[in-house]
Design a protein that fits this description.
Layout (H helix, E strand, L loop, with lengths): L5 H22 L5 H19 L2 H10 L4 H46 L1
Length: 114
């Protein structure tokens, strides 16, 4: 029976909180199934990495990376850049939608004044 370090307990409590937030957002319809599965997968991998730190070393060795911590950092950077890309696309789409709506409203107002 292994004893968890205080940092592991703290991180596991945070991951439990994050997991519950994802489940609640999915249940109330805020996030779609794909996003739900993505975040559940991220939190599951994080939980596994905290409970079994040697797992990251195993994955790192399979990928040709020296240390498990390096693999975690590389993975986190890749996920962060992907999420930044997704957010940028969403913001651009919103900007275009807002521009279209403002144009439509302005044209309707001009037609009413005539």
């Amino acid at each position: 029976m292994s004893i968890f370090l205080p940092i592991q307990i703290l991180l596991l409590v945070f991951l439990l909180f994050a997991f519950t937030r994802v489940v609640l957002r999915y249940k109330d319809g805020t996030i779609p199934l794909g996003m739900f599965l993505f975040w559940i997968g991220i939190w599951a991998l994080a939980t596994l990495s905290i409970i079994r730190p040697d797992f990251t070393t195993y994955l790192a060795r399979k990928a040709g990376i020296g240390r498990g911590a390096d693999a975690v950092i590389y993975g986190a950077l890749i996920v962060a850049f992907y999420l930044i890309f997704r957010i940028t696309v969403i913001i651009e789409n919103l900007r275009q939608d807002i521009t279209r709506v403002v144009r439509e409203v302005a044209l309707k107002q001009v037609k009413k004044k005539k």
